[in-house]
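Quick illustration for those who missed Monday's session on complexes.
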Amino acid sequence: MTDYENSHEQLNHFEPTLEEETLPGISEGEIIVIRSTRRKKNISAYRQGGRIVVSIPARMSKADERAMVPEMVAKIRAQEAAATMSEESLQTRIGELLSEFAPEITSRPASVNWRAMRERWGSCTGIDRSIRISDRLKGAPDYVLDYVLFHEAIHLDIFDHGPEFKAMLARFPQEDQAEAYLAGYEAAENALAAPEALKKLLNKGA
Ligand SMILES: [Zn+2]
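Prediction with zinc ion bound:
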């Protein structure tokens, strides 16, 4: 194994192989398979942005790819599940955050759920006091998850993003760092999506 595995340099060498087809149990666009010329035997997988990147040797057969990729994806998911906060813990954590930073909010969420959301980090429905958190945050640092939980928890009382909301959110000590993390995450996701967009552009010109 080399240090190149997670480097951006590698992106110059890859050929996406799963553009039109979707493997069982895998939603479209979630998995990127990289055929690496540097790689002779080993197959590796890692999380990058909202996607799982699987790096396989350039010469691996299609049949082997179909067999191995879901296995690697399952492995990554199992690791993540083991490291993920339970939904009960999320609910408890929201109570702690509100007590500490916004004691005037006395309502508590009726439910907190992980949800596959690409466009948003979280959402809160005031009527039934339900909160959903994007599963892209499953591997995020604690302060980032706390920040998003706190944001949604404030919505239990304040529905808009007006001055009152902003003032309350600003009580979170690492607001700037958390915002920077989320912005960086989105930038990385977009950067990773670029090669395919580029490919479409090139096909159009052909
Ligand atoms: Zn909001």
